[in-house]
């Protein structure tokens, strides 16, 4: 069974640009969550999607958005990039989500904003 | 974003020594999960604790959930070099989910 796949693995963007990251969950998993990991702030929850609907949201500005498609694949978008958005972005999938079951993480997308 | 301070932040141990990390919340939790992240890797699920006072063991790892469901610990007996990494707790309050700051473990051979 293939694991969680995130693309691209590395990305360099300029301040003010926007970026879209992609996450393909494990087959059969309907929940996809996104996290931001930085040395200073640690691992922070961005949002969770389940069956194409955003079910939970962390404390991030509206520049951070996401969506989920009917095949459970998810995308995360960050608009008007700031230097502080440089981070490892991780997605995790689980069968039903809700933070009550094991989450399987992808390798992450390393975003650098210059 | 909300975070919980894990103690200690860093720990260096000689191979064979024991290691413990603590996770304390001010809020009663629905459950707590523990993850391990190797250097350069991604978090990998270790275990979930749900019941008050619950203790679970995985070989050399022992996980405890406090009686008040506000704190938890992870104890590793006789560390090995394969235990190197950062250990995170992940807390579910029922309507919020957040990670602890992590404890970075270095094992000296």
Fold and architecture overview:
- The complex is a heterodimer of chains A (114) and B (109).
- Helices cover 0% and strands 53% of the residues of chain A.
- Chain A is built from no helices and eleven strands.
- In chain A, the strands form two sheets. In chain A, strands 2, 4, 5, 6, 9, 10 and 11 form a seven-stranded mixed beta sheet that branches. Chain A has a four-stranded antiparallel beta sheet with strand order 1-3-8-7, with no helix packed on it.
- In chain A, β5 (42-50) and β6 form a beta hairpin.
- Chain A starts with a strand and ends with a strand.
- Chain B is mostly beta strands and 109 residues long.
- Helices cover 0% and strands 54% of the residues of chain B.
- Chain B has no helices and eleven strands.
- Chain B has strands at 6-7, 10-14, 19-24, 31-37, 43-49, 55-58, 61-65, 71-76, 85-92, 97-99, 103-108.
- In chain B, the strands form two sheets. In chain B, strands 2, 4, 5, 9, 10 and 11 form a six-stranded mixed beta sheet that branches.
- The termini of chain B are far apart.
- The mean pLDDT of chain B is 94.
- Classes of the chains: A mainly beta (114), B mainly beta (109).
- Chains A and B meet through β5 and β10 of A and β5, β9 and β10 of B.
Q: How would you classify the helix and strand content of chain A by structural class?
A: mainly beta
Q: Indicate the mean pLDDT of chain A.
A: 95
Helical segment count of chain B: 0
H/E element order of chain B? EEEEEEEEEEE
Global morphology of chain A: globular
Which two protein chains have the largest interface (Cβ within 8 Å of the partner's Cβ), and how many residues from each?
Answer: A-B, 22 and 21 residues
Classify the helix fraction of chain A into a percent range: under 10%
Number of strands of chain B: 11
Fraction in beta strands of chain A: over 45%
The helix/strand order of chain A is: EEEEEEEEEEE
């Amino acid at each position: 069974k293939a694991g969680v796949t995130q693309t691209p693995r590395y990305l360099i963007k300029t301040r003010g640009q926007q970026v879209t990251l992609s996450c393909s969950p494990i087959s059969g998993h309907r929940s996809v969550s996104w996290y931001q990991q930085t040395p200073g702030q640690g691992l922070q929850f961005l949002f969770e999607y389940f069956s194409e609907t955003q079910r939970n949201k962390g404390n991030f500005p509206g520049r951070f958005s996401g969506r989920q498609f009917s095949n459970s694949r998810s995308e995360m978008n960050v608009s008007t990039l700031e230097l502080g958005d440089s981070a490892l972005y991780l997605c995790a999938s689980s069968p039903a989500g809700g933070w009550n079951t094991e989450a399987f993480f992808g390798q992450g997308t390393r975003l650098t904003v210059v | 974003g909300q975070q919980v301070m894990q103690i200690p932040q860093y720990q260096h141990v000689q191979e064979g020594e024991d290691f413990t990390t603590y996770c304390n919340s001010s809020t009663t939790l629905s459950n707590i999960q523990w993850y391990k992240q190797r250097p350069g890797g991604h978090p990998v699920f270790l275990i979930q604790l749900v019941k008050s006072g619950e203790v679970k063991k995985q070989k050399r790892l022992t996980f405890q959930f406090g009686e008040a469901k506000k704190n938890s610990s992870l104890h590793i007996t006789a560390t090995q070099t394969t235990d190197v990494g950062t250990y995170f707790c992940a807390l579910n309050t029922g309507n919020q989910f957040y990670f602890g700051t992590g404890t970075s473990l270095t094992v000296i051979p």
